[in-house]
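S.,

As promised, the glycine run. Input:
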Amino acid sequence: MNNFGIAIHGGAGTIVRKKLTPKLEKEYRAVLRQSIVSGYDILKVGGSSLDAVQSAIVVMEDSELFNAGKGAVFTHDETNEMDCSIMCGKTLECGAGTLLRHVKNPIIFARTVMEKSEHVLLASDGAEQFAKLHNLEIVDPKYFHTKRRWFQLQVVKEKETETETTRAILDHDGDNSKHGTVGAVALDKNGNLAAATSSGGMTNKRYNRIGDTPMIGAGTYADNRTCAVSTTGHGEYFMRLVTAKDVSDLMSYKNMSLKDASNEAIKKLSAIDGSGGLIAIDKNGNITMPMNTPGMYRASFSNGKQEPLVKIFVEE
Ligand code: GLY
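Predicted complex:
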């Protein structure tokens, strides 16, 4: 049987055991599992890597736990502005969106841009006109208004202390209020790679700030000749390093293994004081998920394995 597999991330940051309550940890692990299994089930029956990464991301976008879709963080102006991208390793076609405010599942938007337009990246009102034209699900901005993200914004803005009821979440979030991007990479039975990433960006962002997520090459990259990569963390640093494409380039120009190329990319991130992680899968189905933070919500599932691996902390 040909190799196939999938890896996902739900954000990297200061995720440490003593700050993650058992209840919240259980919830994260359950959604990560649901996400990876939904992608793996598609691959198992011969489905495409594009369908697998899209399906895995929709699960995380529909959860309040991650900073994407439903759980997107708030901007300084108390709106939600979402970024997304997807790339096909076979054709190098890609689609992306930014400044989306009403699209329920940004990753479906990115896929639609890739398949139904002659463009790569659409933004803001024009992007949402395109979404409506293609009958994507449009929601009232209230849909993205979650208590947790609202409190995060207040804390970041005013540095106020949390209420008792939100203490556990805020204590855990602290430094993570800026992170939580979701992503997926997959290899299907036909040898096709795909990568996808979706994010609400960073809490309290201003001036229509756009991160690495919709930047092909920075947040997302896939090429059947090398690998598929999705990044998570402080986007400005990944944009400066063009990290996702860098992993692919290190493999093709320097003949590095997936693991060495990914570690090298994270080393470069650390060297300029950037924080975050990435997930990557190569054309042979090898998977790696390095980070320079204490944790990253992540999971992987390869053919031949009975169960997915679901991990949060760096030492797992
Ligand atoms: N990595 C997501 C962002 O910085 O927007």
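The mean pLDDT is 93. The longest helix spans residues 22-44.

- D.
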